[in-house]
Amino acid sequence: MAQFGRPSTDTTRDNWEEDDGGTTDIWDQIDEASRDDADFIRTGLTPTADVYVTKLTTLEDPLSSTGHIVRYAYGKSAAGGDQIDQVVQLRQGYVSEGTPGTLIAAQTHTDVAAFPVAGTFTLSGGEADSITDYTSLYIRITGNKP
Fold it and tell me: What is the pLDDT of residue 80?
């Protein structure tokens, strides 16, 4: 049975905001079941390792080492603008930047495009097996202007 962990709360919000500039409960801009590029979250124009972390909704252990896929969309606001790099991580047990939990898997995007791009990464069997608590999964995104 397919399961989908969606953002459920803001855990860390270092210079990230909603597409309209709001800063309260920004997770609700990215929790939709079907991708919607009309609402999103963003860093400032010149991020310096700006971090956003959201807790995912509770999942059940699928008792399988295959089919663990992290899906998201990413981009920047200006074509030809400054280079912006982004790292998307799946973590378990995140508490704070001082206690970031266990890194399960990550994907790095260098010089992201100026339009929303579908991003995914599939966990290896070992990465999937390293998840011991499906109730404590987090997505951590870092935006950076090198």
Answer: 73
